[in-house]
Amino acid sequence: MNYRVIDKDRYYRKGVFRHFTQDCKCSTSMTARIDVTSLVEYSKKTGSKFYINFLYVLSRVINSRDDYKMGYLWQSEELICYDVVNPIQYVFHEDTETCTPVYTTYYEDYKLFYDEALKDVEEAKKTREYGLDSANHPNWFDASYISWLSYDSLNIELPDGYLYFLPIINWGKYREENGKLMMPVSVRLNHAIADGYLLANVYRLLEKEIASFVS
User: Fold this and answer.
1) CA dist list (Å): 202 to 41, 67, 99
2) CA distance 62 to 60
3) How far apart are CA 207 and CA 97, in angstroms?
4) How many CB atoms lie within 10 A of CB 20?
5) Are the beta carbons of 17 and 193 closer than 8 angstroms?
6) In tens digits, what is the pLDDT along the chain, a chain of 215 residues?
């Protein structure tokens, strides 16, 4: 795990950062649908899993910009930016109706990421433990698939006083709309390091990255 410390006096969002870490501690979230038609077609054509393909695309997007890789060291009150952030995926156990977090390492190499992500899932299926271990996995972001519903809105609440900066991403079932397969994606970021533009930019980057991936 490597990171660099951000000089808060020279941080390009320093005014916003001060306000939303001192005056009004809060998060901001958004749900929107993205077109995944081409990614679904690619997955079927190649015999690969759409879920893992989307997880790879999402991880590329989150690692493409420093704003999505921020962290906060409360012990030293340091704002930091990780070199790389990795996804926490989740395995659902039908028998217990519970989930197990799966710490998957992000690799730029698609095949390596795909193979390792699948191995992680298979290993997690063997346990029923929750096993969340954020202390030893500080640069992992939540990436959770809500497979049972093509929802319209979702909101993740965290205590306002806790400066948690890594993204929390959820997505649901895709559904056909006007000949396209549209999938709901929810993005939660801390308002101290993100605003509406940076939230909306995740969706723009996702569709751009999907187009690049399938081509």
Assistant:
1) 22, 11, 26
2) 6
3) 32
4) 22
5) yes
6) 699 999 999 999 999 999 999 999 999 999 999 999 999 999 999 999 999 999 999 999 999 999 999 999 988 999 999 999 999 999 999 999 999 999 999 999 999 999 999 999 999 999 999 988 988 999 999 999 999 999 999 998 887 667 899 999 999 999 999 999 999 999 999 999 999 999 999 999 999 999 999 99
